Every structure is written in structure tokens, then in C-alpha cells.
Amino acid sequence: MGHVGMSSVLAGLIDHTILAADATPSQVTRFCEEAIRYSFCSVCVNSSFVPLVAGLLQGSGVGCCAVVGFPLGAAAAEAKAAEAAWARAAGATEIDMVMAIGALKGGDMETVRRDIALVRAACAGALLKVIIETCLLEDTEKQIASVAAQQAGADFVKTSTGFSRGGATAHDVALLRAAVGPGMGVKASGGIRTREAAEMMIAAGATRIGASASLAIIGGADFADAGY
């Protein structure tokens, strides 16, 4: 497969992500235009941008992904569910929620599972990814969190918000994949800025990549030269 063909396959695994607090509507619009041009899997934004993004992406085949309880995961489960329901109604096709990290660290698995289950129910029909923030967890906790997300009905587990002490590692991706088995999605996000890094995550078991440096990962200039 040629370089452009490989880039096209990789693009289809990327959530083109813009989550900065100072992101402007014009910047989000540009991300949507890039996602359509390069056929990224989705555009991932804070929930307030969902109406804009859903409208811009309508009919394009690119998904609209909203983060919920972001980036700390410390909001009440009911608040996360309300945000997820609002985002879904506004046009989000995917929800990336941050789990109740403190509850997990404290061993309160009932709260962890309830938190995810409430969001799952609130965004029925949307793909649900659960961010477990691997950099804050021990390996055993990462496994426990992944299984809890799976049991609560999530479609994916996701490594990181990109807003904490660290991002995705191949070790963590492999750990999450082993915990959930072959049938569940694993999203690697946080600090992935090159094709080599993205391919390393995929080789470790990732089925989705979250990145803001998506054009650098796929080689945007090559796409432009090819007329894509």
C-alpha cells in the first residue's frame, strides 16, 4: 500500500481533537473542514461546540464526538448524564466521558459503575468511550477500570484526557486491550504527535487514536499534493 493509501487508512482511525479552553469557533470550524477533507473518523470537542460541529459535519460521514465530565471526571454522575444527553440531542454521535477517577482510587466500584451506566443510558444510540486517565492509576487499577467500563456497557476504553500528568503509552494500550479482550474498542490519546507513535499504539491494540496533531500524523502535505 502506498504512502497516501496508508495515510487514508490511518486517518479513518483518528478523532481529530480540539479541546483547549481557548478554542474559538473559527478554529473548531477549521478542524471540521480538515476532518472532512482527510476523512478522519470524528471531530472531538467540548460539548458546547456540538451544535456547530454537528451542523458542519452533517452528511459528511465524519462523526461528532463530545467529551463529558472533562477533564477531571469529578462531576456528579447525574451532571455527566445530563451533559451527555444534551450533547446527544444536539447531534453528538460519540461521547468520551471521564470516569470517576477518585472513586476508583478509593475502591468505590459501585460509584464507578453507576457513573458510567448513567451516561450510557443518557446517550443511547451514541458510541460511548470511557477515559480512565492511565497516568493516575496503577496497572491493576487500569485493568479494574477497563473491566468496569466494559461491564457498564461502554464501547471503548480510552487512555487519557491529555490534560493530566501523562498521555498514552504502548504499555497502557496493551494492558487495556488485554483487560477487555478483542471485542471492545481501545482509544489511545494524549501526546500522540507522529505517525510512528500512532502506529505503535495501533500495534499495541488501539483501534482509535485521539490527536490534535492529526495532519502531522497522516502527512497532510502529501494529501494536499495528491489532490485529496
Please tag this protein with its features.
eight-stranded parallel β-barrel, 228 residues, disordered C terminus, 48% helix, TIM Barrel, 11 helices, single chain, alpha/beta, globular
Tell me about the biggest sheet?
Answer: 8 strands, parallel, barrel
- CATH topology label: TIM Barrel
Global structural class = alpha/beta
Oligomer: single chain
- The dominant shape is globular
Q: Please, how many helices?
A: 11
Q: Classify the beta-strand content into a percent band.
A: 15-25%
Q: Order of strands across the biggest sheet?
A: 1-2-3-4-5-6-7-8
What's the short story on this structure?
This protein is of the alpha/beta class. The chain has helices at 3-11, 25-38, 50-57, 77-90, 101-105, 109-122, 139-151, 170-180, 195-204, 214-218, 220-226, and strands spanning 14-18, 42-46, 63-68, 94-98, 127-131, 156-158, 185-189, 208-211.
Can you put this structure into words, describing what you see?
The chain is α/β, with parallel strands linked by helices. It contains eleven helices and eight strands. It has one domain: Aldolase class I (TIM Barrel, Alpha-Beta Barrel), CATH 3.20.20. An eight-stranded parallel β-barrel has the order 1-2-3-4-5-6-7-8, surrounded by seven helices. Helix 2 runs parallel beside helix 3 and helix 8 packs parallel to helix 9. The relative contact order is 0.15.
List the helices and strands and how they pair.
Blueprint: H1 3-11, E1 14-18, H2 25-38, E2 42-46, H3 50-57, E3 63-68, H4 77-90, E4 94-98, H5 101-105, H6 109-122, E5 127-131, H7 139-151, E6 156-158, H8 170-180, E7 185-189, H9 195-204, E8 208-211, H10 214-218, H11 220-226
Parallel strand pairs: 1-2, 1-8, 2-3, 3-4, 4-5, 5-6, 6-7, 7-8
Helix pairs in contact: 2-3, 4-6, 6-7, 7-8, 8-9
